[in-house]
Design brief:
Length: about 325
């Protein structure tokens, strides 16, 4: 018997079958929005439901029809910083849409956010799932940060430009490292480097800087391994001090081989103007044939107001592929 009442769901204590049922919602929603992409793998998505970063928590709700999940929602939040903020995800199975399930899950998530003492909810919608933006408006949310998702066809990447961007001045103090596993000796320095992402545009979202720790980096590494995913990380080190002044990383799964996903790219403000961002991006692209065999496309996401990074991507041949919007809902 169908009930429209979302119920609490703890992936860490639920049965594998129930986790898999929720993962089927995630996979079906993805396939409806991105039918040309390699499909998500239910077992991998089910495993991802159990992941939590140190210092953070998640809360899940599911609408069930017997053993079948029809809709799923989740809140993610920090226990130590940005205590006013919570990030939400909400998906309804394509076969169960237009029945009010999204609204019921949203109400439940809002009540949970209030109970946690949070005053701001953020969430993302995508152009290729066109119902998302109108739904966000019905909730009273405000568009806070427009994002551009771009795609590079790898065989079209300009080889001369990649070579030019990786040629460095003789005697400069910068050294490039490329890692598939993060070395312990650099872990604290890399955590500090990743926090430079706090300088990326935030649009109209009221949030404080967030912290990255070595424990978080190792946790994310374990989660990637559990999901069958690989990461390639490029860093630039200032050899005079040992400080890392730039980084860029990409992610790839052999099970979804055509796609590589760009993670973060950042250069410390004190080291900008020396072409380090271009060097990092080009070095990663040149390494992809060995790191990600079978890859054909690279996808990246940038705030529309991030002109510097968009300029690098456009020069490399990235073209607009999709748009996203980050929304905020004040409680």
């Amino acid at each position: 018997m169908l009930t429209l009442t979302p119920t609490a769901f703890d992936p860490k204590t639920e049965t594998p079958g129930r986790r898999l049922a929720v993962a089927e919602v995630m996979c079906a929603a993805f396939a409806a929005a991105y039918p040309a992409d390699p499909p998500l793998i239910p077992e991998r998505e089910a495993q991802s439901l159990t992941h939590e970063t140190p210092g953070e928590r998640s809360a899940h709700v599911v609408v069930w029809d017997g053993p079948r999940a029809l809709a799923w929602g989740m809140l993610e939040y920090s226990l130590t910083e940005n205590l006013h903020l919570v990030h939400a995800r909400l998906l309804v199975h394509p076969d169960a849409r237009r029945r009010g399930l999204g609204r019921e899950v949203a109400r439940t998530l809002e009540a949970q956010a209030r109970a946690l003492g949070r005053s701001l909810v953020t969430f993302m919608t995508a152009e290729r799932a066109p119902a998302g933006a109108p739904f966000a408006r019905t909730l009273g949310a405000e568009a806070a940060l427009p994002m551009r998702r771009s795609q590079l066809v790898l065989e079209a990447a300009p080889p001369e430009l990649l070579r030019d961007w990786t040629v460095r001045p003789e005697g400069e103090p910068y050294a490039l490292h490329l890692w598939e596993e993060l070395p312990e000796a650099y872990l604290a320095r890399l955590a500090d480097m990743v926090m430079v992402m706090n300088t990326a545009p935030r649009g109209d979202i009221e949030m404080d800087d967030w912290t990255v720790t070595p424990e978080m980096l190792r946790s994310w590494e374990r989660q990637l391994a559990e999901g069958g995913e690989k990461r390639l990380t490029a860093v630039v080190e200032d050899t005079r001090s040992g400080e890392l002044v730039g980084f860029s990383d990409v992610y790839w799964s052999p099970e979804r081989a055509p796609l590589v996903f760009q993670g973060g790219t950042a250069v410390r403000p004190s080291a900008r103007g020396h072409g380090l961002g271009k060097w990092l991006k080009a070095a990663v692209l040149l390494r992809l044939p060995g790191f990600a065999p079978g890859a054909r496309f690279v996808r990246t996401s940038n705030a529309e107001e991030n002109a510097a990074m968009l300029g690098i991507n456009v020069a490399l041949g990235f073209a607009p592929w999709d748009s996203q919007t980050e929304w905020k809902l004040r409680l």
